[in-house]
Amino acid sequence: MSGAPVSRTLALLTLALAPLWAQAQTQVNEAWARATVAPQKASGAFMQLRSAQGARLLGASSPQVGRIEIHEMRMEGSTMRMRALDALDLPPGQTVALKPGGFHLMLFELKAPLQDGSRLPLTLQLQGKDGKPESLTLELSVRALAPAHAGH
Question: Domain count of the chain?
Answer without folding.
Answer: 1
